[in-house]
NAD(P)/FAD-dependent oxidoreductase
Amino acid sequence: MSSIPKIVILGAGYGGILTAQRLQKALNYNEADVTLVNRHEYHYFTTHLHMPAAGTDSIEHTRVPISKLIDEFKIDLVKSSVQEIRTQQKKVILEDGTLSYDYLVIALGGEPETFGIPGLDKYAMTIRSINSVRLIREHIEYQFAKYKNEGNAQEHINFVVGGAGFSGIEFVAELADRIPELCKEFDVDPSLVNIYNVEAAPTALPGFAPELVEHAMNVLTKKGVTFKMGVAIKECLPDGVILATGEEIKASTIVWTGGIRGNRLIEAAGFEAMRGRVKVDEFLRAPGHDNIFIIGDGSLMINPEGRPYPPTAQIAMQQGECCAHNLVASIRNQQPKKFVFSNKGTVASLGRGQGVAVVGSKTYKGWFAAQLKKVVDARYLFIIGGIPLVLKKGKFL
């Protein structure tokens, strides 16, 4: 048997791809055998999915082939879905085979958290993948066509978005920008279209200063969004939702953005988890497993204020870099380094030419914040693919 340690990375999202890229730079020839497992041949930008979902940008601007991001002489790419993780046997069961490992990186991403709301998993759509985004976009266009062809039923042009966090706010902003184009295309009076954003919490965009939240809601209200704050969705139906107040909103389109949990494969593998997220140690390792690292949406880390860090792309990227460093350190019998999150700032898009942002102690809104969003997107493209990728995905500039 080969004495070269086997590293298996599950998932090529923000955390997984950064782990693979940093490993291929840091490892010497024949120092480790690295395999990256992903269900698709492409890496996609989760933080950009709200735009093609609404139809304001092309799907092709949200993804890049993994083969363009890794050196396939150093990283083996396996296109497959993970079925099971067997920690006792140090094996990963795929849909079409089995992989053994010495070190495992679980970067499988998250899943929608429905909080047990009846009907939500059956009738609501989610913005979580390229295919789900394609479905939402085509569904929205189909509803306008049905409205014109089936007696102008109002539910076809009522849209309910559950959740007013980043994903929800950014999606309703893009949807509000798209509606006038769809109305013109299908000859529908724009004043008849309704976009409802429903949020159980008392405020939108958690983590932002109240004045930025107020600005965001004012911008979107002017674009035609109706906010229902501090009220939960009680039940999701085939033709709408029932709110906790008893109000029923008829709608043929329900998009859920109200929460993320870790991948269920993590719980099934026997890790102690809360909503699919494992409280990892300071080196990103799973409790009781020095050879297993969990990063991204599946990891739970507590910030200095005693609250969990939100599962963002920014933290997943930094975890990927730290994870790669600690894998190399373990192979070389060196000291690992503690993960310390460095907050580069937070930006939320509010559609065409609008946004809100927090960078350090400074806040921004309007056009300048929208440009900061583009800078953030371009920076990520540069990190994973250099200038050629930034230029190719020109929509980010």
Remarks:
- The chain has a mean pLDDT of 95.
